Amino acid sequence: MDFILNLLNDEIRRVEAQFREDLTSRVPLIRKVGEYVLASGGKRVRPMMLLLSARLAGYQGDAHIGLASVVEFIHTATLLHDDVVDSAVLRRGQDSANAVWGNEASVLVGDFLFAKSFSIMVRAGNLDVLKSLADATTQMAEGEVLQLISTSDVELQEEHYIEVVQNKTAVLLSAASRCGAILGGCSVEDEEALAAFGMDLGIAFQFMDDALDYVADQSEFGKECGHDLLEGKVTLPLIHALRHCTAEEHEKVTAIVEQEVLPDEDLQYVVALIHSYDGIGYTQKKAKILVESAKSHLVAFAECPAKEALVRLADYVVSRNH
Is the pTM of this model over 0.90? Predict the structure, then answer.
């Protein structure tokens, strides 16, 4: 990541300053909650995607700074809402906003961030950018509902799970890349290539999160091992294990997942089952394939520091350990 951060050093600083400016409100609690979540250690992958795509497309203006702030605002709003839906108490190793200020404040500040994002986009005046991010936000909401109705579903198929991931997570990375292309006036083909890069990378990013969840060190990853299962989320490592386990093991997992409260020994049983059927290795392998696919979408672009940074960002996704 050092190469990317050095390349984008000035722009990232400007985006961070834009966060603070965009959080301006007559209501002090909005700034307090917003700054708390935005300062909690996010990797800023989505703003980086937009900034690097704009560079790759040859963009020379300043609108990419505000839009990079917008995509992180949209992401942060979904995190605030996610933590309420999931009754989460930790986010990136610290108390979640809803644990500190309550569910009501988290939902309402999330609403503010969504509304502010669209206010900024409208002021920017680019209808293609507005359409891209509006469509992405709509799909993200659909992805949240898809995930909700899939809660504790041990019959969930991999194809359906990928649909959830595309809508809930990957679509915003795709839109961030597309917006950079739009700003730079790319051809339709190059715009679609960058959008496809973001989509593949977004799915890979979520797959790595899924894998890391089952090997997580709370002090490093910010949540306990098996946290997804505690929230009733059936993710790719478990889907793979359930596809290959015995009928007796499948029945036991079904009974475990249906419980209101998950005892530690039951959680450990599922984690051990996932390891025994190499659900983590399978998920990481799928992520690596997607990263190679993502990089293939950049072939048409000339070699330059921005392209190298996007390739390195893709490699980082499958090499990270938190």
Answer: yes
What digits encode the pLDDT tens for the residues 2-58? Answer: 889 899 999 999 999 998 899 989 999 999 998 888 887 678 999 999 999 999 999
Contact status, residue 183 vs residue 54, Cβ threshold 8 Å = yes
CATH classification (class only), 2-319: mainly alpha
* Residue closest to 231 by CA, chosen among 203, 252, 259: 259
Question: 317 CB contacts (<8 Å, ≥6 apart)?
Answer: 201, 204, 205, 208, 287, 291
> Hey, is 94 helix, strand or coil?
strand
Residue 311: which of 163, 227, 200, 217 has the closest Cα? 200
Q: Are 66 and 121 in contact (CB under 8 A)?
A: no
CA distance 1 to 20: 24
Closest CA to 57 of 172, 175, 198, 179: 179
* Residue 238: how many other CB atoms lie within 10 Å: 29
